[in-house]
Amino acid sequence: MDKLIIKGGNKLKGDVQVSGSKNAALPIFVSTILAPGKNEIRNVPFLRDINTTIKVLESLGAQVVGNGHIVTIDTAGINSCEATYELVKTMRASVLVLGPLLARFGKARVSLPGGCAIGARPINLHLKGLQALGAEINLEHGYVEAKAKRLKGARINFDISTVGGTEHLMMAAATAKGETILENAAREPEIVDLAQILNQMGARIEGAGTDTVRIQGVTELFPTTYSVMPDRIEAGTFMIAAAITGGDIRISGMKPEHLDALVFKLQDAGVEITSRDNVVRVKAPKKLKSVNIKTRPYPGFPTDMQAQFMALMCLAEGASVISENIFENRYMHVSELLRFGADIVIEGNSATVKGVKKLSGAPVMATDLRASASLILAGLAAAETTEISRIYHLDRGYESIEKKLAALGADIVRVKE
Ligand code: EPZ
User: Fold this and answer.
1) How far is the CA of 321 from the centre of ligand 1 (A)?
2) pTM score of the predicted model
């Protein structure tokens, strides 16, 4: 197993390029099931979750060929409608194959994902939505078994804003008979990216990115070529890396408008942010100020940036209150940040972070993807050496993060444990 060794204290400087978005690429890969033939997906990040998605598609009978950041997925030969526990348990987004398989073949058998490090994360709203589209759903031996002759359009009102649920039903409804209306739909940019590729395949989806998505079902979808949007969470993580190290960096290839909530909060903390032609310059202030955040569905402050922002607040002047409103257990990084000498108290879904003068490097353990990122950020700012073990979580969602940080001047290396 690999670990990261960081000698903290270097101010980051220079340029960094953002990779393609993990959370957009995953449903985009899955959507190719609906368009039998050769689909070409560009700007694909090199990540473990992408490899897992490729394994899922190959296990169904698709042929997948990678060439750098371009991946060709030929879904003409799909001949299995089952996604096994082995695959789904390693990456819960695999469950999204259920709707597209059902839409194309009239049946599917997909393992239930189970809980995960950040919360219970049920898929009840995905299943309720598929039932509303006319699917017959049975849960047997840990698997969801779904059947339907042809899905039929319906009006679906989500109880909670769900990113995966919105994406899943958008895909399932694309070839359903008649109109589907998704109300209280999630509005994340990754949903807009998915709607764009589906429309390029021939779907008729309107309103993605708002809370009402209208889908006029079509009879079939056709293969296409599509370039994945930039990863807003990777971009946000680099913004905080600059802010926490007293740095001054330029981030290219990102869409700053996808990160408004974070940008406003960083500016409140005193960070200078300017942007021109999708290049964003982030300059740390002499002293960071404390700010409160509440995670919310998009366009609110993203839960996927909460752990990283908390690392930043550990070194701000004053006290900051951070409330996590999306996942019930997303504070696994707190006990590790305490090992750096941070002052954080959790009560219910809120954490009070009192800024300290300095963090000191420590051996710590990564527990999930964004928690791992927060430990790197703390390590970059901490005095002396930090060792982060179990970094396989990080490889799920950040492409070559240690190389990108080293190019910005960080002293960070990956070693075999
Ligand atoms: C997506 O997860 C992202 N994953 C997550 O990113 C992200 O944290 C999350 O959206 C919120 O922004 C991918 O896109 C692959 P949800 P998803 O359905 O779709 C509850 C990362 O670090 N819920 O919007 O699974 C759920 O438990 C990851 O990159 C139900 O109750 O999230 C949660 O509390 C982690 N029933 C809330 O809704 C359901 O059927 C929002 O979850 C579905 C969800």
Assistant:
1) 23
2) 0.98
CATH of domain 2-15+288-416: 3.65.10.10
Q: How far is CA 296 from each of CA 258, 269, 415, rounded to the nearest angstrom?
A: 14, 19, 37
Segment 71-97, tens digit of pLDDT: 999 999 999 999 999 999 989 999 999
Collect all residues with Cβ–Cβ distance below 8 Å to 86 and sequence separation of at least 6. Answer: none
- Residue 116 bears catalytic tag: yes
123 lines ligand 1 (CB under 6 A): yes
Q: Are 295 and 303 in contact (CB under 8 A)?
A: yes
- d(CA 254, ligand 1 centre) in Å: 22
Tell me, what's the pLDDT at 373? 97
The owner of tokens 């194309």 is 104
* Number of C-beta neighbours around residue 184 at 10 A: 15
Of 98, 301, 304, 369, best ligand 1 pocket probe by most atoms within 8 Å of the beta carbon: 304
Domain spans of the chain, in order of start: 2-15+288-416, 22-227
Q: What is the pLDDT of residues 21-40, one digit of tens each?
A: 999 999 999 999 999 999 99
* pLDDT at residue 314, as a whole number: 98
2-15+288-416 and 22-227 share one fold: yes
Residue 261 contacts residue 300 (beta carbons within 8 Å): yes
pLDDT tens digits along 241-280: 999 999 999 999 999 999 999 999 999 999 999 999 889 9
Ligand 1 contact via 374 beta carbon (within 6 Å): no
Structure confidence at residue 102 (pLDDT):
98
Q: For the domain covering 22-227, report its CATH number.
A: 3.65.10.10
Residue of 166, 193, 309, 326 best suited for mutating to test ligand 1, as the one with most atoms within 8 Å of CB: 326
